[in-house]
Amino acid sequence: MPKQRQLVVESVVDAPRADAFAWHERPGAVERLPPPWARADVIENGGIRDGGRVVLDVDAPWPRKWVAVHEYFEPGRRFVDVQTQGPMPAWRHEHLFEDLDERPPTQAFRMIDRIAYRAPGGPLSGWVDRLALRPQLGAMFAHRHRILRDDFVQRATLPGPLPQRIAISGLGGLVGRALRPALTTLGAEVLRLRRASNLDKPSGEGEIVYCPAQGSADARALANAHAVVHLAGEPIMGRWTQAKKDEILRSRVDGTRAIAQALAELPEADRPRTLVCASAIGYYGDQRDAGDPWCTESSPVGQGFLSDIAKAWEDACAPARDAGVRVVNLRIGVVLDPRGGALQPMLLPFKLGLGGPIGAGGFYWSWVHIEDVVGAVVHTLCDPDLQGPVNLSAPEPATQKAFAQTLGRVLKRPAFLPLPTAALHLRFGRELVQAIMTASIRVKPDALTQAGYRFRFPALEPALRSLLGRPGTETPADITFR
Q1: Of 68, 70, 273, 419, which sits most exposed with the smallest number of CB within 10 A?
Q2: Secondary structure (H, E, C), 326-374
Q3: Which residues, at least 6 apart from 466, have a Cβ–Cβ distance to it below 8 Å?
Q4: pLDDT tens column, 249-283
């Protein structure tokens, strides 16, 4: 039988112990804590009280179920989960919340994860543990402690209260999947804003129906929300046929106008106070001919298909804005997340040592970590003075060449093979490549920083390391294997 081993992870969290324990009790914690580089889809979540059963679909290293049952629940102090089915021969995870001797429990506490486990691999389990499992577990628990710490750091500095009921469209997308658990762990209720072909059927429990074709939404259900976050839209990637371009435009403009019009038509007493609507830095167009100047929220609209879409998308919010709703148009940059977006398709060639810049690589990518997208949306929902266009990209954009070199360094792979733009033209078409992959847009997030938002990942290399589980020199926790 493989030898039993122990992992202990400790960190100090600047938050009341009771609040952090409540954070773990909320349904979103199971989705919030897994790291982005390791898939863990929630199939069942029975909570952390005694007998609560959690079922995950994980890759370890192949897709399979992880089933854990909770026990020894002690409010505010501890809970334990024990694997009953999964990739490990044995796994018992004790979560401890301990007071600090030198500080009152209302100010800070010590978070301790104590895991007793046996590594898979039979007679080779020792090698599996040292060479594969320990690095993975260390990175995973460092991520978990960082998420908890950063969420409470942000909560302490929010400019106002978080709306308690928030309607969100696009919950199945990259941003929506990350945003929902971040909001529910903070205590908000998330309502699904679902697109429908008509409004004949009423909204179901926990959802609000909107209809772009009819230009409206279920007003009765919409009145239950305190704020609306609109993220939905046809994916940009894919060859831009005329039909594809029409759907990209229609899905954004018609859907936004329907929601904005429905908000405007509600009685003022019933109307959600805030509409946060996604937009894109494509608003500014390709800036290479202008010498790659900084694009701020006051910069003019650019030229081209994406600029036209972003302008029309933001203009579609006008009915809500005119009715007195606080409208924020988030001009989102290149979102980095290994589960999708621009980073996911890059990973395989870079891991094989075949990565490199696109062409000469001199154009700017204004990137943003998925956690800063989530954090900025939370901040925006809580700031009553923030409105209008808001750039959402990291304060340190990188050229595509620098991006490729940094990704290669994080993965410990060479990254010098340039990807010919002609190959991309064959795959996606010249218009899409010029508008997205080789456009140079150097964005400065003035409105966010002036509003007091503090980026979790302002620099590229720490951002990529956190997303890919490749720790740098800084770790948020003490990690000990025994």
Answers
A1: 273
A2: EEEEEEECEEEECCEECCHHHHHHHHCCCCCCECCCCCEECEEEHHHHH
A3: 143, 146, 369, 371, 457
A4: 999 999 999 999 999 999 999 999 999 999 999 99
